Structures are given as structure tokens and as C-alpha cells.
């Protein structure tokens, strides 16, 4: 198995990425790695972490980097020699079974959409983000988390199929409960898009549980929450922002007097556990589901553990044959999915 790793992606590249790779090498001995990035900069960190000349690492030069401030189309227009674009080309040419990047999400989506293309029967690829719930150890998949701002019913119907496959085979959830993000649990609630999607999902051979409000998702009522990319990304960013704000609120009220501060010192382990619940380290990254290849997109602030787990997720997706399973399941649901296409398509 060959995995292309974007060494230049993220806020702390390439050091963090190479260190993460050093953690993965002893655990994933059946994997070979194509480390993509600026030859000299990457070579320095390979030397630092004792990986220079490693038999399972092949360096692939990429002259430029898609910065986080760059527009999404930069990987296809201004920086065709970027590490993200080179990774996408390796995936397209089947020189890699999967790619992992903690870099620019928009640039990755653009590059893979044009170069790698989607699977047969799939119109658009979607980001499957993992979010925590109130139930210990339980998370839910939000799909789409931001790859497709404007969607039609066919897209969300396919997201439901792909999200169910990911939850069942990679997360090992039997008969995953699939819900549709809406403003109310009743069938009649929602916008025109969600109302149309609801009619389709209830006829499909999936475990569809109906409309789900965001608070219910965080209470653990679903395993997969389906949404268009606009609403999904708003939900994701709101959750992240609220988590950061809550930490600041806690700091403010805890440091208000000496007694509270002393109590906080004794509760340090509890705060560490609370922080770990929302951390993305164990998740690693969000799969871009529906591509004709495996692509895992990590957080821009990824640390070595995050990189290690993103590589783990990529390996698991390849092992479980996620792409073949998606093609098979989309074909099985073909009649229902056809019904969701707008007239004239």
C-alpha cells in the first residue's frame, strides 16, 4: 500500500508532518510513503528524525505550497507544482492508494475534483467530519462539512449512502443511524431542499431516522448527520467557536478569586479530559468521500499525533475497500437516487 503524504501542509509543516510519519512507520509496516514537498526542507527533517534513506519513504519534490490564505483554485491555476496538486496527481495516476494532507481544504477539494474525479454514480465528493457527543466515547459523522456549498437533492442522497458506508466499515457501527440536519424533528420542518431530500431518504435502503436538530446530534441521536456543505460548515465552525469560547469563559470565572483558582488546580485532570473530548488528535482528519481514490484532509493546526491518525484512517479506508463499497451501494440505491435528480438532468 502506498500513501502520499503532503509534507508541506498545515501550520507547522514540514516538521510536524515528518514527525507524525515517524510515529506511523513502526505501526504500519505494510505501507510505503511518498513524502511530497520541497526536497531540501523535507530532507532536513528526515535527517532530524532519523528517517533519511528509510527504505519505505520516497521523497517526491514539489516546488510550491498552497498557503492557507490562497484562494481555493490556486492548486489548479497559480501553483500547479504545489504539494497538494502533486499528491492529487499521484492519486490520479494510481501511483498512490491514498493521500493525506493537513493543508488547504479548498485547494485539496479543487485539485482532487478536477484531477482524481468522483466515483461512478457519485456527483460530488463530500467531507466527513467527526464530532463528539454527550455520550462517552461516541461521535457522529457530519457530512458534508464544507466541500459543497450549493447542493441539489441528489447530492445529499449520495452523502447519506457514503456516510453510512464510512460509519459501518471504518467506524464499525452496525446499521448506522442516518439523520437529516434540519430546524425541527417533524417531517414538515425544513427548507425546500431538506423537504425534498427527506422524501428520498425515507425510501432508500438505509437506516434513516428522519430530521435531526443540531442539539439532538450532539446528544448522540445519530451516527451520521447529512447536510449541504454550507449548513454543515456553519455547524462545524459554530461548534469549534463555542468550544474555544467556553474555555475562555471558564478561565475568566475560575481566576476570579483564589479559592476558585485553587479548586481549578485540583481539577486539572478533569480539564485535560474535557479538552481531549473535543481534540482532533485521535480523529486525524476528514475523509473526502466519493473520490476515485482515498483522500484524508487534516486540520491546519495538526500535531504529530494528528498526522499519525490521519495516516491510520487512510490505511483503514484502503483496507476496507471504501471506494468499491460506495460504488456498489450507490448502484443498489440507484432508483431512489435517480428520483432525486432535478427535472431535465
What does this protein look like?
The longest helix is centred in the last third of the chain and has 26 residues. The strands form two sheets. Strands 3-2-1-4-12-11-5 form a seven-stranded mixed sheet, sandwiched between helices. A five-stranded mixed sheet has the order 6-7-10-8-9, with helices on both faces. The two termini are 38 Å apart. 48% of the residues are buried. The chain is an alpha/beta fold and 345 residues long.
Per DSSP, the total helix count is 13
**Shape designation:** globular
Helix content: 40-55%
Instruction: Please mark out the parts with pLDDT under 50 across 5 or more consecutive residues, or reply none.
Output: none
Structural class: alpha/beta
End-to-end span in angstroms?
A: 38 Å
Gyration radius (Cα, Å) is 21 Å
Question: Could you give the topology of this structure?
Answer:
Elements: E1 2-6, H1 15-24, E2 32-37, H2 39-48, E3 57-61, H3 83-92, E4 98-101, H4 105-115, E5 126-127, E6 129-132, E7 139-143, H5 153-169, E8 178-181, H6 192-201, E9 208-212, H7 214-218, E10 224-226, H8 229-254, H9 258-266, H10 268-278, E11 286-289, E12 294-297, H11 304-319, H12 322-332, H13 334-339
Parallel strand pairs: 1-2, 1-4, 2-3, 4-12, 7-10, 8-9, 8-10
Antiparallel strand pairs: 5-11, 6-7, 11-12
Helix pairs in contact: 1-11, 3-4, 5-6, 5-12
Features:
12 strands; alpha/beta; seven-stranded mixed β-sheet; globular; 345 residues; five-stranded mixed β-sheet
Amino acid at each position: 500500500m502506498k500513501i502520499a503524504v503532503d509534507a508541506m501542509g498545515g501550520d507547522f509543516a514540514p516538521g510536524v508532518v515528518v514527525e507524525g510519519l515517524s510515529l506511523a512507520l513502526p505501526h504500519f509496516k505494510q505501507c510505503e510513503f511518498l513524502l511530497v514537498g520541497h526536497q531540501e526542507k523535507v530532507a532536513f527533517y528526515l535527517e532530524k528524525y532519523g528517517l533519511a534513506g528509510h527504505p519505505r519513504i520516497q521523497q517526491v519534490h514539489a516546488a510550491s505550497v498552497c498557503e492557507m490564505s490562497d484562494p481555493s483554485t490556486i492548486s489548479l491555476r497559480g501553483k500547479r507544482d504545489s504539494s497538494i496538486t502533486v499528491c492529487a496527481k499521484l492519486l490520479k495516476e494510481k501511483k498512490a492508494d491514498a493521500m493525506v494532507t493537513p493543508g488547504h481544504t479548498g485547494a485539496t477539494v479543487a485539485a482532487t475534483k478536477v484531477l482524481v474525479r468522483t466515483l461512478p454514480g457519485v456527483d460530488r465528493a463530500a467531507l466527513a467530519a467527526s464530532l463528539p457527543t454527550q455520550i462517552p466515547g461516541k461521535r457522529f459523522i457530519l457530512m458534508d462539512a464544507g466541500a459543497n456549498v450549493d447542493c441539489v437533492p441528489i447530492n445529499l442522497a449520495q452523502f447519506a449512502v457514503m456516510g453510512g458506508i464510512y460509519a459501518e466499515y471504518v467506524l464499525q457501527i452496525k446499521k448506522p443511524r442516518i439523520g437529516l440536519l434540519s430546524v425541527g424533528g417533524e417531517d414538515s420542518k425544513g427548507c425546500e431542499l431538506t423537504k425534498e431530500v427527506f422524501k428520498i431518504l425515507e425510501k432508500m435502503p438505509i437506516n434513516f431516522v428522519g430530521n435531526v436538530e443540531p442539539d439532538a446530534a450532539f446528544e448522540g441521536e445519530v451516527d451520521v448527520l447529512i447536510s449541504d456543505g454550507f449548513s454543515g460548515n456553519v455547524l462545524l465552525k459554530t461548534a469549534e467557536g463555542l468550544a474555544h469560547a467556553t474555555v475562555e469563559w471558564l478561565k475568566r470565572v475560575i481566576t476570579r478569586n483564589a479559592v476558585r483558582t485553587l479548586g481549578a488546580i485540583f481539577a486539572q485532570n478533569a480539564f485535560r479530559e474535557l479538552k481531549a473530548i473535543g481534540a482532533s488528535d485521535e480523529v486525524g482528519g476528514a475523509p473526502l468521500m466519493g473520490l476515485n481514490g482515498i483522500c484524508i484532509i487534516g486540520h491546519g493546526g495538526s500535531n504529530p499525533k494528528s498526522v499519525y491518525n490521519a495516516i491510520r484512517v487512510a490505511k483503514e479506508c484502503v483496507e476496507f475497500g471504501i471506494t468499491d463499497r460506495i460504488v456498489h451501494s450507490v448502484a443498489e440505491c440507484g432508483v431512489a437516487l435517480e428520483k432525486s435528480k432535478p427535472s431535465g438532468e
